[in-house]
Design brief:
Number of helices: 6
Strand order of the largest sheet: 3-2-1-4
Order of helices and strands: HHHHHEEEHE
Strand content: 15-25%
Number of domains: 2
Radius of gyration: 20 Å
Helix content: 40-55%
Largest sheet: 4 strands, mixed
């Protein structure tokens, strides 16, 4: 006896399903392209070529539109499923090079090493640090202690 299986759209959170309904490619192709783009350092043209090798014609600009549309929705849906973090945070910042430009990466971890939150900014200033802490506290609750380095921005 065969049982009916749910379509992938019905297993996805509601916001994602609404966005995917308007797209004209098979769901598995869209999700695969977005996943590969995010998980691996592939360019949009690399993805276009990889899909062509599999017999699927996808333009790199379509993949780019999918990424722009879906990543904020995925981020919002996955944040709801994130495990709770501890009440003692260690916060640090560093600078990293992104596409040839230096950016400041703010990151907090709890005692167990779970990432609380992170923020990538072009400037290292009080406004960036404040925005980072407000976002982290809003999404994870107020910590009992925060350990920071002695940088002026923090």
């Amino acid at each position: 006896m065969m049982t009916k299986t749910k379509t992938p759209c019905k297993r996805l959170p509601a916001g994602i399903g609404k966005v995917l309904k308007r797209l004209h490619y098979p769901l598995d192709v869209i999700l695969l392209c977005v996943r590969w783009y995010v998980a691996y350092s592939l360019s949009l043209r690399n993805l276009e070529e990889m899909m062509a090798e599999r017999g699927i014609e996808v333009d790199h600009s379509s993949v780019h539109r999918w990424v722009i549309k879906l990543l904020p929705v995925f981020e919002k849906a996955l944040r709801k499923r994130k495990r709770p973090v501890g009440k003692s945070w260690r916060v640090d910042e560093t600078y990293v090079q992104v596409k040839g430009h230096w950016k400041y990466l703010y990151r907090a971890v709890d005692k167990a090493g779970n990432t609380v939150d992170f923020l990538l900014r072009a400037r290292r200033d009080k406004a960036a640090a404040r925005r980072y802490f407000e976002k982290a506290i809003e999404q994870n609750g107020e910590p009992e202690t925060i350990t920071v380095d002695r940088s002026g921005a923090n």
